[in-house]
Q: What sequence folds into this?
């Protein structure tokens, strides 16, 4: 996945045959393709804007569980027939496909993600309005910085505890092993703003595994 300030990454959960095809096209696409055929060892650890799924892997329980957690991310299904799986997809492409067709599909997916990213999203009883740079609850709101918006969205979308290292890499683009208090400082300030305005002290949580909303 990618730093939020770089060109979009697209996660590809595909069989070996499709990996070979996509590898041949990678240099011609305006996106970073993250190619996986198995999630049994670990989940992708970078931020991505869209997901491509090979229908051959749809019945994999681990991948199906992973996809069901990523409801807010646009998805493209690669299929060799019109027998589309009942999982919710934003678009599909049939085999064989060509470079121009795939490129157009990915552009549409990422554009959809970027459009959604500029709109307001509900987080528990709060609304994160990225256009106005406000974090709202009812009539009350606090003004949030661009980094605070990225931090709130990342914690919310991941839907699981994420480490300081992961946050540093995806928001601040720090190299592995970087020793900084940036994350702690930003989370402390954000928690204080939320507590002072909304008397809410349990929105951003942390344990040994990391931070979560």
A:
């Amino acid at each position: 996945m990618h730093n939020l300030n770089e060109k979009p990454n697209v996660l590809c959960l595909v069989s070996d045959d499709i990996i070979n095809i996509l590898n041949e096209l990678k240099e011609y696409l305006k996106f970073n393709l993250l190619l996986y055929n198995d999630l049994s060892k670990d989940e992708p650890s970078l931020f991505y804007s869209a997901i491509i799924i090979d229908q051959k892997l749809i019945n994999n329980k681990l991948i199906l569980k992973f996809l069901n957690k990523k409801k807010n991310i646009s998805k493209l299904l690669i299929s060799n027939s019109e027998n589309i799986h009942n999982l919710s997809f934003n678009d599909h492409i049939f085999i064989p496909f060509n470079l121009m067709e795939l490129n157009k599909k990915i552009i549409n997916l990422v554009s959809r993600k970027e459009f959604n990213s500029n709109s307001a999203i509900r987080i528990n009883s709060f609304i994160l309005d990225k256009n106005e740079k406000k974090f709202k609850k009812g009539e009350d709101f606090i003004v949030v910085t661009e980094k605070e918006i990225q931090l709130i969205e990342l914690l919310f979308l991941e839907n699981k505890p994420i480490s300081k290292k992961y946050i540093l890499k995806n928001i601040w683009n720090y190299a592995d092993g970087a020793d900084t208090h940036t994350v702690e400082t930003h989370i402390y300030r954000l928690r204080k703003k939320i507590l002072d305005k909304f008397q809410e002290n349990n929105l951003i949580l942390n344990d040994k595994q990391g931070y979560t909303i």
